[in-house]
Fold this protein.
Amino acid sequence: MRSRCNGACRSRFRSTCLASCVALLLYAGGSSGQGLDTPRFLDHSLLIAPEYPCTWPASPFPRFQITHQRTIGPDSAYNLDALLIDGNTGTQLDVPPHSVARPELKRAKSGLLGLLFTDKVEAWQFGGEACVVDVRDLLDQAPNGVSPLVRPEHVRRFEKQHRQLRFGDVVLFRSDYTDRYYQPLPEGRRFIADVLDRKAPGYPDPNPDCMEFLAARGIMALGTDSASMGPLPDLAEPTHFAGLKHGMIWTESAVNLGALPSTGAFYCILAPKHQGGPYSDGRAFSIVGGDLPRRLISSCRNKRAIDLSPTLAPDLPVTSPGIGTGEHRQTYLRVDFLYNPELDMWHHSHLMDATAGTHLVPPSYSLPRDRNGLVGPAIVRGWLAEYEKTYGPRGTSTMTAELVPLDWTSGPARVIDVRSLVGSTRPNSWPASPEITPAHIQAAEKSCGELKPGDVVVFETGHLDKYLKPRPNDSGVWADPLCGKSEGWPAPGPDAVVYLKRKGIRCIATDAPDLGGVDPRCALMTYWALGSREMVGIEFLHNVGKIPAGGYFLFAALKIRDCHGGPGRAIVLY
């Protein structure tokens, strides 16, 4: 077996595929089984950008920052961003340790749920059937600085009109607060700051009695289109604890809930998997139309879910160290900024590369904004000429993370096992990655059926499952393969990308560190092929070998404006 971009594999390839042909019929993105009624994705996430009130405005909470550390030009072949982002940014996820203390503290609010951080919540709990409780009659119906209260009677009103709530429902409180008041600053002060300064009425929120009522119904997930789930001025913590002590999780600062039917839609929030995180920035969305929502709701209700995202932690190799001094990406760092003595816990932000952990690769990652954009370092010019001679113009793109449609990164999971390629290169050729070619994909299709438009192709290399370990045993993920001390992970070449595009595939994922592999020339050609064909990648998965037949892949990146990567979370429902 020669290294990537240097010819076809000479070793025998053995491929297995876990997704069945039956699953393709059940979950095909273009057919719901109900005539022309096809699934549609709805976005319920606020745009994250510095000029918006996307972070909690009180001191010492840090403001969101995006830094374009490198752009395509003389010193970089890629657009690279670093993020300073707090878990209370934009649309966000709260989990029990936000209010429940760890059990070893033996305090009044201590319990086992105090250990259920964002990296410990099971994936089935992120989704369910959207039950939209209309509380628009409460909007602005309170004095300045005071929240109108959502009470049990508001929920009973919903149940009288529709049905009784039950386990597996996601109760969403719709007031249209974010739709009306989330605006660029200074107008955006009305969203949170003016409420805290008692210059405007507070956002509607449930009181503790409402939380207890919902807990009695078996509700484990909630959402609100208010800025927080906590009523101001003095019920924020009592309401949080009233729900979180039961193991609930919830979405704060959702938007566009008015686009949902009262019942029947599938709702989900996916958030980066921060180690020890009591909350996290997230991406909320729903699916309406056709039979797909019902199937995904059933998966969550019956706890059939697989988490595909490794944990983000400072002692794990979740970002590339690069090849050579000074070529590393922004290291993932936890930044403590506010101590909570009741919970013996620091509120923290994160300084991280936009491609840390499980993340999105949009077309703009490797393509310049316009034709006047620089090619890249001098050596890249020769690679580009070679690429364009074979694959056509590299092209341009302005498609950053927030512009990638949600339905591009979700679909029937088609796992292609390429672990047989491991060990197929010669040490004297390193650094090199075995190349995944069209022949390997065709072998998988022959075994399990042809790929269909809308499928998410997931390459199973086994790399992260084997090598993702904390320091000091962390060199196997990136450092050793990049430096030629060990073989690189299997990665698709541009021919494979071109083939998948012809099959109607929009999204390619991998359980390796990235889709490019360890050879810079080959990697760049793969990313050019992806970007120029308006395809996206999802990198840094694990557990893909656990995906059962019929699994439906869901991924969503944070909705960050002008971001050339996109941290996110990937799960499979089955």
